[in-house]
Amino acid sequence: MKKLLTWLVPCLVLLAVVAWWRPDATAPVATDAVVTSGEAGTEPALETLQATPQAQAYRERQRFEADARDFFARASALGAVERSERAGRLTQQIDRYEAGGGLSAGEAVLLRTALVRATVEDPAQQAEEVAAIADRYRAHADRRMAAFLQQQRNDPRFQTYKAREAQVVAEVAAMSSIPAGLTRDQYLRRRLQEERERAYAP
Q: Which residue, 52, 47, 92, is CA-closest to 68?
């Protein structure tokens, strides 16, 4: 029975979420036959499944995406106050999802840029704000890259690979013929991949 529940509960969560979001459904799809297929009272009720954090997070994300689509479709027809208020709420949600890893930097940049274009009428101000967004994310990316490179420099596996990389490049450059019908660049990439796998092998 435990093995059955281990497999069944995730499936019921998925069914509950799909049932909740069917556009033509006014009530959840009937799943009584599934829920009551085992001993009475052993499987959680559909309402309990819909109340799980995962199901709630899914519904919240769907609402966010629907709100964003609706806003961008109707922004030009909204009054200035409503447009500003809705844009502010979307900005807060973008901040939250980005901080939690629910949006990539690229997705966040696109959404923030679209919000500027939808809410700022003056072309010069639009350009300034879009440029500021790009500068902020570029600076953030530069900081992350610098931190990554510093981490790599302190990693002995990376140092081992870099030493072998120079040797392999010299070896391949000195070869008069390349095996397996590969070009020199293809063979070099293969050799370097092998060295990376060897250096970082557990």
A: 92
Among the listed residues 143, 85, 153, 72, the one whose alpha carbon sits nearest the alpha carbon of residue 113: 72
> For residues 191 and 195, what is the distance between their CA atoms, to the nearest angstrom?
6
The pLDDT of residue 92: 96
CB 12 within 8 A of CB 35: yes
194 vs 67: CA distance, rounded Å: 48
Alpha helices in the chain (DSSP H): 2-20, 32-35, 46-50, 53-74, 80-99, 105-119, 123-153, 156-174, 184-199
Examine the pLDDT at 134 and tell me if it is beyond 80.
yes
Write out pLDDT tens, residues 116-130.
Answer: 999 999 999 999 999
Sign for the CA dihedral angle at 132, 135, 137, 143 comes to: negative
Q: Which residue has the higher pLDDT, 36 or 71?
A: 71
Q: CA-to-CA distance for 10 and 5, rounded, in angstroms? A: 9
C-alpha span between 147 and 137 (Å, rounded) = 15
Band of residue 43 on the pLDDT scale cut at 50, 70, 90: low
pTM beyond 0.85:
no
Average pLDDT, integer, range 80-93 = 95
Distances in whole angstroms, Cα of residue 51 to Cα of each of 45, 55, 94, 124: 10, 6, 24, 47
